[in-house]
Design goal:
The structure holds 2 protein chains of 2 kinds.
Chain A lengths: L1 H99 L6 H13 L7 E5 L8 E2 L4 E2 L2 H18 L5 E3 L13 H11 L4 E8 L4 E9 L7 E9 L2 H6 L1 H31 L5 H4 L2 H9 L1 H17 L8 H4 L2 H17 L1
Parallel strand pairs in A: 1-4, 1-5
Antiparallel strand pairs in A: 2-3, 5-6, 6-7
Helix pairs in contact in A: 3-6, 6-8, 6-9, 9-11
Chain B lengths: L4 H91 L7 H4 L17 E5 L5 H6 L1 H15 L8 E3 L12 H10 L5 E8 L5 E8 L5 E6 L19 H31 L5 H6 L9 H24 L4 H11 L5 H19 L7 H5 L9 H11 L5 H13 L4 H5 L3 H9 L3 H13 L7 H13 L3 H10 L8 H6 L3 H13 L7 H9 L7 H15 L4 H13 L3 H13 L7 H13 L3 H13 L7 H13 L3 H10 L1
Parallel strand pairs in B: 1-2, 1-3
Antiparallel strand pairs in B: 3-4, 4-5
Helix pairs in contact in B: 4-6, 8-9, 8-10, 9-10, 9-12, 15-16, 16-17, 17-18, 18-20, 20-21, 20-22, 21-22, 22-23, 23-24, 24-25, 25-26, 26-27, 27-28
Classes of the chains: A alpha/beta, B mainly alpha.
């Protein structure tokens, strides 16, 4: 009886279990279906998000390409404008070399090479000296034009040869012989600027003698340091000279040329001393360039003598550290004092 | 044991139910799998369609862009055509350039000139052109040109502060310039200060100088009649100077000083107006460098012109801010034109006008001007220059007192507003204690630079050592010492820094009666100021007084100060957003302001940011980054960071 009741109970349990399993199974299946649907929806959402992100990336790529295009156009236009500017400058440079360069046509190439080389060299640059050739004797009237006296060419040739010999003792001065190919050259400020334009990269002294129609030969000079923005152009002094007398009186002409030679030596020497003393601390050397004759000429010419004296006094003033404190960045106080005394001694010599 | 049929039946039901459940499960799995496959197939199909679509769109865009590029290229080619025309025109312009010196040389665009700084345009370029009289051009012009070149080279040298580049021998042709040639010069030399002078002989007799000038601040296109010349009436375009030796000599004698004055006056005006340089011509006239013997009218005209220039300048200075030093510089250069009494009168007029310009009351005497109490330390250069030029004993004591009073003020408002660190450091290096204080403030409040407590402390200490009163008061307030003796000083100074200090003094009752209201009033005076301490201190006061009742105002003030770079405001915001008592808790904001403080290298900012990364508070968890920041905070001396690192170890 007991076992029957137990079996019945077990049976009821199975039935209940079956019913519950069936019901739970149905519920679980519907939950699974919902979960599967959610999963699909989520996948769809992810796909949409991926697509949106991809669209944004594509849009950004396109926008970037457009920006690049715009920028490259801007760059192209800027380059084109720069190139155009360069073309205009080229026109001017071509014209400058062909028509405006006042010295020997082969000189620009030499100068530019030297400027280029100086960029890679630590060597101190020498002072370049250029002598312009103003007419010495009255011009001759040729059938078509006024031409300089043929003797002028020879005279300048000889003057430059002698000057070169005088300057040989100086290794920091470079006389650019025969740079001036015209013997009727008028070296106004315009021409000085033209020379500076090309030679601005080298320290240079341009000497321009000129007869002033009033019995005087005036010496003007332009001088500049390497990379100086502008040249310093200034009248120096004048010596008495009369071309008409020189033409007919050989002795007068000879003496005048000697005086001019002395004047040129003094200008080069004093400028060299001033430049080398102030920039490289080198000792003044003008005295070594002057023989007795030249010294005598200076002694007898008031303008020449006062010029030399003034030049060295100017150096002494320029060496005053009170007004040029930057000197002390390059030199010690003792060096400056020694340079000052050297310049002062030179001024006393004359 | 026989099985009970009922049990059998129930077992069968159970087995049946299990089989049914199993069958249903399998069926559902199959269905779901099919659905997933179907979805995947559809997705693949969609993806394929999309790829095609994207590719097509991409191709369309590529075509469109190519089209745009083509259009741009076409436009460029059309522009190039314009340039070709321009280039050809320029070739012709250069071929017919009227000067012996090209624009490229005048503009100094030299190949070797690698240090062009723009200074080259300061020089005034001067050209004397041939006249319409052939005889004059042949026999007189070269001498005049030569003398003018010497005059400019010697006294207006290119290395001086008044550089004139006189282009002697520059005009190519022997004829007077045409209108086209002048336009050509103006076009190609625009912006280059240039003066072109052309003598013009009138057919009916008389001479004028045609003046063309540009790039000197004004564009001049005028004629100057020269009726004072001895032979003014005899000058005619066809005159033969070879036969009139007397006229020739006198012409040279008269033209040279006249042109020297003309060039000098225009140059003076240009250098004075544009570069504030004192005039030079009057000195040259006084030194007889310009020989005006027998030409007194030149001196009179110069005196008149410079007087007019000064009068206009004085008059204009009343209506618009005109540097009084500039007026003095004009007077300094022109002083030699006037006798001592006139010079003194003019100087006094400048002094009185300067005072008048700054005062609302009418000032008519030197005494009134001296005691108008409008001068500050900034006026010292003007006053020093004035007294240097005045050289008159009448007001010597008054000026001495004024100097003494101004020099004793170690205060300069402009310095306390400056954020130019380089300039301030230079001033501080020269011993300016106000600049030292300002630098301390700049490094403390991250004004235009990062927070730097070391530099800030250094400059504040330097200011205290230099007895800078603001710095001393600041130190007293930090130490909560009384500032009773400094209140009048602070109240007398109208600047944001004094109000900040006063506000703190009122709030803490340091030597004054405690008054939050007064403290707020002081700060409100500078509510538009960009000084970060104004908003920060105001926020602190509001927090203390109102707490969370004014949370929006507190947040606004602190954010303002924080945006101005003040690190304490950033740390405060970080703290308030973390705490949540006054401002609503916001982990993201905590991270935002911790980052701001950390970017300036503040150890507290670095520590909080490190902890945020380690705990994932307001930011994705990143323990490595957190540790790095922790080490950085420890390196900067944060004790908590050091302790945490030790614990981790």
């Amino acid at each position: 009886m007991e076992s029957q009741s137990y079996a019945a109970n077990c049976g009821l349990f199975w039935v209940a279990n079956s019913v519950v399993s069936t019901i739970m199974g149905t519920t679980n299946r519907s939950l699974h279906e919902e979960a599967a649907q959610r999963n699909l929806d989520f996948q769809r959402e992810l796909e949409d998000a991926r697509n949106i992100a991809q669209d944004e990336v594509e849009a950004e790529k396109i926008a970037f390409k457009r920006r690049v295009m715009k920028l490259s156009r801007q760059y192209r236009q800027a380059e084109s404008a720069e190139m155009f500017d360069q073309q205009l400058k080229t026109i001017e440079l071509q014209s400058f070399i062909e028509k405006y360069w006042p010295l020997a046509p082969a000189l620009p190439n030499i100068i530019l090479n030297e400027i280029e080389q100086s960029k890679y060299s630590n060597r101190n640059l020498p002072l370049n000296v250029i002598l312009l050739h103003a007419p010495l004797l009255p011009p001759k009237v040729a059938p078509m034009a006024i031409k300089a006296h043929s003797k002028d060419f020879e005279t300048y040739k000889e003057l430059e040869r002698k000057l070169e010999i005088s300057l040989k003792t100086l290794c920091d001065v470079k006389l650019r012989k025969d740079s001036c190919i015209n013997t009727d050259f008028v070296g106004g400020n315009a021409n000085m600027m033209n020379i500076h334009f090309l030679m601005g990269g080298l320290p240079t002294l341009v000497i321009s003698p000129k007869y002033n129609n009033e019995g005087k030969m005036i010496f003007n000079a332009a001088v500049w340091e390497a990379q100086a923005i502008r040249p310093l152009i200034r009248p120096l002094f004048s010596i008495s000279y009369e071309p008409l007398i020189a033409e007919r009186d050989d002795e007068y002409f000879k003496q005048a040329i000697e005086k001019i030679e002395t004047a040129l030596t003094v200008i080069v020497g004093a400028t060299r001393d001033s430049y080398m003393l102030l920039t490289q601390g080198k000792a003044p050397m003008l005295n070594s360039l002057l023989d007795e004759k030249k010294k005598e000429i200076i002694e007898n010419d008031k303008a020449l003598k006062s010029f030399v004296k003034q030049e060295y006094e100017n150096i002494v003033n320029a060496l005053d550290t009170k007004y040029s404190p930057k000197l002390l960045e390059a030199y010690s106080k003792e060096d400056v004092e020694s340079m000052k005394s050297q310049a002062h001694n030179m001024s006393l010599t004359f | 044991m026989p099985v009970d049929p009922l049990s059998l039946a129930l077992m069968a039901v159970n087995v049946g139910a299990s089989v049914f459940n199993n069958w249903r499960n399998n069926k559902q799995s199959h269905k779901l799998q099919e659905k997933q496959q179907e979805f995947a197939r559809a997705a693949t199909e969609r993806n394929k369609q999309r790829m095609w679509q994207l590719m097509r769109e991409g191709q369309e865009l590529a075509l469109e862009m190519e089209r745009e590029t083509h259009e741009n290229r076409l436009e460029d080619i059309r522009n190039d055509f314009d340039k070709i025309l321009h280039r050809l025109a320029y070739i012709e312009a250069i071929k017919t350039w009227p000067l012996k010196v090209l624009p490229i040389v005048m503009k100094n665009q030299s190949l070797g000139s690698l240090i062009a700084t723009g200074d080259e345009n300061i020089a005034m370029h001067c050209i004397l052109t041939p006249s319409n009289c052939i005889q004059f051009n042949k026999h007189i012009l070269p001498t005049i040109e030569e003398k003018l070149a010497d005059f400019c080279n010697l006294h207006w040298s290119t290395l001086s502060s008044h550089p004139i580049l006189f282009y002697s021998g520059a005009w190519k042709t022997g004829t007077t310039p045409t209108g086209v040639e002048i336009s050509q010069l103006k076009t190609n030399l625009r912006n280059l200060p240039t003066l072109l002078i052309t003598p013009f002989f009138k057919p009916e007799g008389g001479i004028v100088f045609q003046i063309n000038a540009w790039g000197i601040g004004v564009e001049l296109e005028t004629e100057i009649e020269c009726a004072d010349f001895s032979y003014a009436e005899s000058y005619k375009s066809g005159i033969d100077y070879l036969q009139e030796e007397d006229i020739k000599e006198r012409t040279i004698e008269e033209f040279i000083p006249y042109l020297q004055c003309l060039v000098g006056y225009i140059a003076d005006q240009y250098f004075w107006t544009n570069h504030n340089e004192s005039p030079l011509l009057p000195t040259l006239l006084a030194m007889k460098v310009v020989n005006t013997d027998g030409m007194q009218y030149l001196n009179t005209a110069s005196e008149e012109r410079y007087s007019n220039l000064l009068d206009v300048c004085v008059e204009e200075s009343l209506a618009m801010p005109f540097s009084p030093e500039k007026m003095l510089s004009l007077l300094e250069g022109s002083a030699s034109l006037w006798d001592e009494t006139t010079r003194t009168d003019k100087l006094e007029e400048i002094f009185i006008t300067n005072a008048q310009r700054r005062s609302n009351n009418a000032i008519s005497s030197m005494n009134e001007a001296l005691y108008c109490e409008l001068y500050s330390k900034e006026d010292l250069p003007f006053l020093r220059k004035f007294i240097e030029l005045y050289q008159y004993d009448d007001y010597k004591d008054d000026f001495s007192n004024l100097f003494e009073a101004l020099e004793s003020i170690d205060f300069d408002y402009s310095i306390l507003e400056s954020t130019d660190i380089t300039a301030l450091e230079t001033l501080a290096g020269d011993g300016d204690s106000v600049a030292m204080f300002r630098l301390g403030e700049i490094y403390e409040c991250s004004m235009g630079t990062d927070f730097n407590p070391d530099l800030s402390d250094k400059y504040y200490s330097m200011a205290i050592n230099a007895m800078q009163r603001l710095a001393i008061v600041r130190a007293k307030i930090i130490n909560r010492d009384s500032i009773a003796g400094d209140v009048d000083f602070l109240a007398s100074i109208d600047c944001v820094q004094s109000s900040i200090l006063l506000s703190q003094a009122f709030y803490y009752g340091l030597g004054v009666e405690q008054s939050t209201e007064r403290a707020m009033t002081e700060l409100e005076k500078w509510s538009n100021s960009n000084h970060p301490l104004i908003s920060y201190i105001a926020a602190e006061l509001v927090i203390q007084e109102y707490g969370d009742q004014q949370k929006e105002l507190i947040e606004e003030l602190l954010i303002r100060s924080s945006n101005l770079g003040y690190i304490k405001a950033q740390l405060k915001l970080m703290e308030l957003y973390e705490d949540g008592a006054i401002l609503q808790e916001s982990p993201y904001r905590v991270v935002e302001y911790a980052k701001k403080a950390a970017l300036q290298g503040h150890p507290d900012g670095l520590l909080v940011l490190a902890l945020c990364y380690i705990r994932g508070y307001g930011v994705n968890i990143n323990k490595n980054k957190g540790k790095e920041l922790l080490v950085m905070a420890a390196d900067r001396g944060n004790t908590d960071a050091i302790e945490i690192i030790n614990q981790i170890k």
